[in-house]
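tl;dr need the bound structure. longer version: we got a ligand (nicotinamide-adenine-dinucleotide) that a collaborator sent over and nobodys looked at where it sits. i said id run it. heres the input, straight from their email, havent touched it
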Amino acid sequence: MNKHELWIDGRSRKTQDWIPVLDPSEGRQVGTIARGTPEDIDLAVTAARAAFAGPWGSLPPADRGRLLLRLGELLRRDFEKFASIESLDVGKPLSQARADAVATARYFEFYGAACDKVHGDTIPLNGNMTAYTVWEPHGVTAHIVPWNYPLQMLGRSVAPSLAMGNCTVVKPAEDTSLSALALAALTEEAGFPRGVYNVVTGLGEEVGTALSAHPDIGHISFTGSPEIGMLVQQAAARNAVPVTLELGGKSPQIVFADANLDAAATSVVRSIIQNAGQTCSAGSRVLIEDSIYEQFSKELAKRFAVLKVGSAARDLDLGPVISNNQLARIQGYLDIAKKDGIITLAEGLLSDENPPNGFYVKPTLLGNVCPHHRVAQEEIFGPVLAAIRFKDESDAIAIANGTPYGLVAGVWTSNIGRAMRLAKKVQSGQVFINDYGAGGGVELPFGGVKLSGHGREKGLAALSGFASLKTIVINDAHSA
Ligand code: NAD
């Protein structure tokens, strides 16, 4: 059985204890990862500091960029290998895992190309003064990654951090650490100096806490649940370290009677079943205008009823969920809905060929859900869609904004004025009009408001999070 060691300072490092790696499609153990310790975190941060003070720190931005671009190229070369690692580890249908591998390559390409294009400003003052700004890297950045898109989430924060000149320590989720470790070999092949990219696998409460509290970290990117995000922010606050929090969501897709209903239905279904609903930006609420509620919910039900769920390798509409715990969590919400009399409008189909110990759940459409019910308020993180009625535009806005979250929203209407009003009034990091999660996303700034977090990743906007702005002023009247 494969044993996966830590990656610190350009070499593998053993530990005493190990954590089993499970294949969610079959519920069986396929390997082990090292259970790192706080001492390993310390070694990784020290290695990253040394690389920052040494070869990486002195590399011109264009050369840094070339290394990132080379890493993107190697990821494209090996994308089938990364897709199968991710598919095995997360249970993703193979085609979704392939898309993740390509998206990760795009992050390294996008930010690799940006390395030598980040400039400061000159600021006009009075005659004797010259003022300008420069961006300076934080030094060592920490990246705490969740299990739903392990490779993509890693690329999303590591690539812009490296682009700005930092060195990195990655703590992947304990359920899905394999792709972060596999990437280490590619950083070596690409020619990154040792210590620039370090991976410490292990438990959140052991190595995650040690990393968040480490005094030599200059910035933390945390992607995960609001509960843990707040713990990470508290730990970072003790060292006055800035934190980007990419947390959860309860994102609405708002469908008006005048919308292209066929396109809306396709998007609404896709945005909740992708990655078996384990997506922070899943469209987990569909808000439907009263006059089309029956017609549109019937259309969604028709589409839900033919969705197929099976092992990752079979590449059906949905794979398994990540773990038994996640399965129990989703089932728990479905039980609450049933107990409270919420009707199930449709369920998808579990394949007869599913291995008996895999973590499979039927995609479920719940009808006429009260906007205040728990299934319409809390992040289920599974393929469960709550259909909610609304009366008019202001009712739609109130319901859309009526959860603790604000990550992504979709608005479906052919009325441009209404689309623009909603884009302004919906509290959300992103709003899509007549689309949802469009454009692949690498170029589009992404992040939340309210409990969905703060700070922005993706796009050029992410770069400023990974550096601090220094202002320099020279008075030439007092210079020799
Ligand atoms: P989680 O918060 O349980 O874990 C995230 C990471 O934090 C893991 O690596 C975990 O090991 C680590 N961790 C756990 N305890 C820790 C601690 N005390 N200190 C430091 N680190 C600790 O989240 P999850 O279950 O892996 O992921 C699901 C959540 O992530 C959902 O809420 C989802 O919406 C969110 N998410 C958000 C985004 C986004 O971009 N907004 C993207 C993906 C996932």
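gonna send this back to them w/ a short note. Residues 144-148, 153, 171, 173-174, 204-205, 208-209, 212, 223-225, 228, 231-232, 246-249, 280, 379, 381, 407, 448, 453 surround nicotinamide-adenine-dinucleotide (CB under 6 Å).
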